[in-house]
Structure formats: structure tokens, C-alpha cells
Amino acid sequence: MKDAASSGQIWGDLWLLLAVQGLPVPIVLCYLLFGSLPPVGVFGHFWLLGLNVFLVAVRSALCFAIAPSYDTNGASGKWLFWLSPLADPLAFLRILISALNQPTQWRGRKYE
């Protein structure tokens, strides 16, 4: 609810969302594909990779937890559900765009 929050709170929420939803999958994929991570200090790689693997594991466990809630009996492409963590960085980008966009009109009222 960006209209009911201060700009500091919005930026704090965006930072948290980036850290726990936007970056873990790209960081883990970067490590798996290229075998390295950006430089972050002496022991930074171990902690950076460990934290992000943990966050991806939690996100994957969430998929297992909510999978029984969906009726996939007649669905085609039901395996795509398991790829949903890969969409998390895109979801963060969409939320960022929405948070930065200030509406100029709502229900016929114009704001400037």
C-alpha cells in the first residue's frame, strides 16, 4: 500500500524484497553456471552463497507446501508450477515499477 506508507518505508520494503526475492535465484544460478560470484570480501562468498541457497531452499519448500492447494488434474503444463521460483526476480521488478509509478488518475479524480 504505497499510498499509505512513507517513502522511507517503501524503500525499506523494496530493499527487503530485493534481498529475499529478487536476488537469491540469480545469485545461485550465477554460481552454478559460472562457478564464481561477485567479489564481496574475504569470507563473503561463503556467506553470500550459503544465505542465498537457504533462501532458494525456503522458496522451493513453499512450493511443496502449497502444491496440494492446486487442482492440476486436467491442467496441461502443470510442471511449470515448479519453475515459479525462477519468476521471483521478475515479480520483484514488477513490484518496483508499481512502487515507482505515481498514479495520476483514480476513479475519475485527477492527481498532480
Description of the molecule:
About 55% of the residues lie in helices and about 5% in strands. The protein is mainly alpha-helical and about 110 residues long. A two-stranded antiparallel sheet has the order 1-2. Strand 1 and strand 2 form a beta hairpin. The longest helix has 23 residues.
SSE diagram, text form:
Blueprint (H helix, E strand, L loop, with lengths): L6 H16 L1 H11 L9 H23 L21 H13 L4 E2 L2 E2 L2
Antiparallel strand pairs: 1-2
Helix pairs in contact: 1-4, 2-3
Keywords:
two-stranded antiparallel ribbon; 2 strands; 112 residues; mainly alpha; single chain
Taking the alpha carbons of the first and last residues, their distance comes to 19 Å
Q: Which parts are unreliable, with pLDDT below 50 for 5 consecutive residues or more? A: none
Strand order of the largest sheet: 1-2
Helix content: 55-70%
Order of helices and strands: HHHHEE
Strand content: under 5%
Largest sheet: 2 strands, antiparallel
Class derived from helix and strand content? mainly alpha
How many beta-strand segments? Answer: 2
What is the number of helices?
Answer: 4
> Whole-number average pLDDT?
85
Shape: flat
In short:
By secondary structure, this protein is mainly α.
